[in-house]
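User: Can you fold this complex?
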Amino acid sequence: MTLFKERIVSKKFLIISGILVLVIAITFMAMPSSKVDFNTEVKPILNKKCITCHGGVKQKAGFSVLFREEALGNTESGKPAIIPGHPEQSEFIKRITAKDPEERMPYKHPALSSEEIAILTKWVKQGAEWGEHWAYIPVTEPDVPSNSNSWIKNNIDHYIFSKLKEEKLSPSQEADKSVLLRRLSIDLTGLPAPEKIAKRYLQDNSDKAYENLVDELLASSSYGERWTSMWLDLARYADTKGYEKDGGRNIWKYRDWLINAFNKDKPYNEFLTEQIAGDLMPDPDDAKYIATAFHRNTMTNDEGGTDNEEFRTSAVLDRVSTTWSALMGTTFNCVQCHSHPYDPFKHEEYYKFMAFFNNSRDEDTETDYPLLRQYNAVDSTKLFQLIDWLNKNVSKEKAKEYYLFLKTWQPAINSLKCDSVNNGSIAVLTNLRNNGTCRLKNVPINNHRQFSFRYNSDYNIKLSVYLDSANGAQLASYSSAKTNGWKIVSLDINSIPGRHNLFFKLSSSQSGDATALTFDWFRFSDPFPGADKLGYASAKQQYEELLSAPAETTPVMVENNTDLFRTTNVFIRGNRLSKGKEVTPDVPHIMNPMPANAPKNRLGLAMWLTDKKNPLVARTMVNRLWEQLFGYGIAETLEDLGTQGITPTHKDLLDYLAFQFMNDYNWSIKKILKEIVLSATYRQDSKFSKELLEKDPNNKLYARGPRVRLTGEQIRDQALCVSNVLSHKMYGKSVMPFQPDGVWRSPYSAETWNLSQGEDQYRRAVYTYWKRSAPYPSMLMFDGGTRDVCVTRRIRTNTPLQALTTLNDSSYLVMARFFANRMNEIGGKDINSKIGKGYEAMMYKSISAGRLNALVQLYNNSLEKYQKNTMARAEIAGDLGKNNPSDAAMVVVASAMLNMDEWLNKN
Amino acid sequence: MKKDIHNQKLVKEANRTMLQQSTRRHFLKEGAMGFGALALGSMLGGCFGNSSSSSANLFDATNPLAPRPPMFPGKAKSVIYLHMAGAPSQLEIFSYKPELSKLDGQDCPPSLLAGKKFAFIQGVPKMLGPQANFRRHGESGIWLSDNLPHLSTVIDDIAMLNAVTTDQFNHAPGQLLMHTGSARLGRPSIGSWVTYGMGSENKNLPGFVVLTSGGNDPDAGKSAWGSGFLPSVYQGVQCRGEGDPVLFIKDPKGMDRDIRKASIDAINKVNQEQYQEYNDPEILSRISQYEMAYKMQISVPGVMDINDEPAYIHEMYGTKPGEACFANNVLLARKLVEKGVRFVQLFDWGWDNHGDSAFNAVDIGLVNKCRKVDKPITALILDLKQRGLLDETLIVWGSEFGRTPMQENREGKKMAFKGRDHHAGAFSMWMAGGGIKGGTSYGESDEIGYNIVSGKTEAFDIQATILNQLGFDHEKLTYESQGRPFRLTDVSGKVITDIIA
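Assistant: Here's the predicted assembly.
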């Protein structure tokens, strides 16, 4: 009821303010000099009031205001609705001002305000010009505003200060050293600063003390781990493949690649290029291949009976959408089904962009091919010798082809491409029983003289391959005893041009229902080259041995060769099965064009992304770095800088940072971070004044320092650190620290959580095994996602389940025990001193009397209880306590301290 | 004069609004020890309060779970959704097809195979007659197989949907479509939509609870009860049948309630001091959340404990306290609904009747699974009725798709057991309570249960009907995300009026 009343009143409010606005608007219109700005004034009205019916999805009455040519074009009535310069002749204006409700637009919705009508009228009068949204215009060198104020430390502060001045606010003073030390250390390394570094900083009163601290932290190896944690969300990294079965995937080397790249401060343009197209760079090494696992973190569906092509397509679409949302702050998915309803992207452009990603070899197979094969040390030396021989004796192209095949078994044809299977089945791979037959359709033989395949059989077999029909000419025949595992065979064949169907026929010593042979892949190639060269025989032998040698594998990108090339079509209304026009790789017209020398493949795409004319890439990254430090981006919607995103609070600062990042700092992440953390803006005290709480509760104007809750990863890592149990071991397979039973419940999966032993229990969270269908609970509670798809931003929540986690998760109990132990060691006998020292270890400052009293009281209450209850004290103190009441009470205090708000936040 | 009065009104209104705001602020500042509304309010305020698109959204950032009236008076106040994950064969339970018996063992005619895709069937399969006996039951005379002897006694409370279809024939996407309106990941589940629309009646319990049984979570995993783009406060909270009912709800061993209380008091005193220094309202939320956590530690295990139910209730449901089983979950669902939980979602895994094992055979495993759910589901209907809650509790029974009238011949082989492949073309679901007309049947499939003949019902129609019973127009319950309003039923959905009382 009250609501209803309010509405009536506010309507009256509207009428009054409407009249007022009209007066203003009329005055406004009388001033011919002021030009309506399309982006800030017109576009928002069109987006909000018109485009739902007259835009990308619907174009009612043949009228659309999405693109200028559409808006000015003929409508169903045969005439254009907008006539530039003539609002009085424009149907568009007539309709929004009409009285008849059947005529008046927006149809069946509230009328436009007089202010809105005035703006649109004036805009038509001035020629109905279109403008581009700022986010699609390249970054130019900005003029830094200039203020004179002693608070200002660098250019960033000039931008912040100017805005504060406008809002009649003043910045806060620099935070205490203790607060800064913890804030900076957690921001840059995700951990409290090592004791040595902390001590040095706290004792150094020189002007350079803070900058030295910044440099030391940036140089620490923990830095790479911290920023990798962030990037893993964007890369939708997980240790499992997702969907129903959600089986394991060995892709942790990509995580290690990231840690290295961040620690070495690999320039962001190279960082992206290697991840998008490392495999297409000249002579890629293992690291460049592993970087491309970025886009192999897409999910693979191993559920029985699913269509691999459907989920391969899903993975490709996911690569498109991740490239846009993670790297270019743009929600591109809409364009899959229709032109973007709000931003200037056309339907067809989505598929042109998709064409860049549509020719990688992966095919949603359970084997997850292509995999990079990394040999052991001995075999790596052999490989090196073999490649050396090839380089010296055959063409560079041939040498490359053989290197690629040894490293990836690509390009090969997966046995899942077989069909017409009789007496056999297609499951994870293609299986044949005795007398089984199958067909391999339309394969490119193209005069290649060798036919190879990888197979596995526990029986004596005879395999015959026929050309074009089951009764056709025999292409090859092969007999063998059982293989004891996988075997790669190469058979010489006649030179046959073009594509053909192959028919396989198996006879074997197996009788009954069991599988007699499983195919993995097939390949057509030329015989090993250099037959006339010295050392041919041993090189060939080495090649064959290496091909089957054991290897560690990681899913990577490998491009189709011309034989296996896929065409790309528009999907009509986004439906994969309804194919439209064929398209070739290209970028949307609104963006910077492809650089002149860029090939139309993923490498060219990377060149385009990292071209300084790309308006989105640098802005998106600096916005994200800012968000990591301040809690919100300069443009809050990291995932959408376009017209639907939230307008940046300091657009000029965003551009300044983007320009610096690309130019002065040559894409160095460490350098741009350093400039941000050296600013007075970052160093401010984070206390809220009453004024700020009312005027700027979310600190969008930066009149105080950031105060933000830490991530689940950081909360765990710092607790391990202060408890003195954190393992500093870097890299390697993901680990499985303690987690409650029953969290993993994937159907059709026998995989289990195998508790890691020793120090692997206490590794940094970035090394924790991430299962998509059941991520590590404590990280999920603190807003971690499943990483099924790219997580562009974690929305922070504050829930009772988080409290329960840090209070009761047995990992946190174990850390509390270790921390209690540490306090006992460093604090001497006195409880006040123990708690005081513990607090100092956490917060780098002395504890206040009130806090100390609260914690001492908790200690005393607990002590009293545990004096009476011997069993309870043994349970709470675990192995670490000496089973005396004070140890038990200390664990309770330590656990409480690990739950302090000031500890869960950076202040 | 008139103008003056008007102005006074305006001033009064403005003052009231200001007062409301300052009261809220007052509450935030001074009311640190009171929680519930406040706690969740500030939890979201920071993240969503400033969103430019939130204006069109229903939810109130200051109290997102406050009970809200629906759009129009609905018949149901809460929903219990029973999902049999894996897709049970409709042909052995609800769908009586005598014609199919006659075709048993014959090759499937090519007309049924042309242009069709199957998950596992390869080549030409054989038809498989119904592997159960069917009888008419109740006054309505609805056909039901002997696999559900208990349910047959309450058939006149049930509205049968016999022509449900989907376009998904793999489990995970099929489940996602049923529960989120999209076969792809990322959309909010129906329970999230409902709690977003109506809030929750109980401040100490989550508004949307998920219970799973059968040894596995459903194939779609947590996304089947995810909140998608809705605020995370609306996601389903999975309670567990064994171990802690909510993860980390139990204090560590050796810590009794008094010490826990003392420890939360100490934490909150320290945080209170931090608040004095920093003035950050988020600190107050944290204080509230710690108190809420303490309360939940008492209320959740209480409601999740079925031991205190009388013997006749255990007898009626066939419950076994301490086990993670479907019967226990059904009883829990009743307890939760009684306490004001808005949406209780059950998933029971193990209904994938392929015939690749005895467990998955339509004449062995399916019969056993039916036995395990028949009694508790019937008990739920009777129990709610005797408590006067059936009218306001909507029960939905269903799955992600059905099974083929052909026998599965995986890898082109005759299989060891009798089973059926995934089938999207026609299957059965039912609803009861919550204003549904009992003893009705809606829709019909052809004489072998392969295709729909009339009364086609899609996931969107079921979703629209559920929302309708709660008092929502499914076309109007929307949320702005990525610049456009989204709804559960996407661009489809019609309320199945034929089964509404």
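The two ends of chain A are 44 Å apart (CA to CA). Chain A is about 40% helix and 10% strand.
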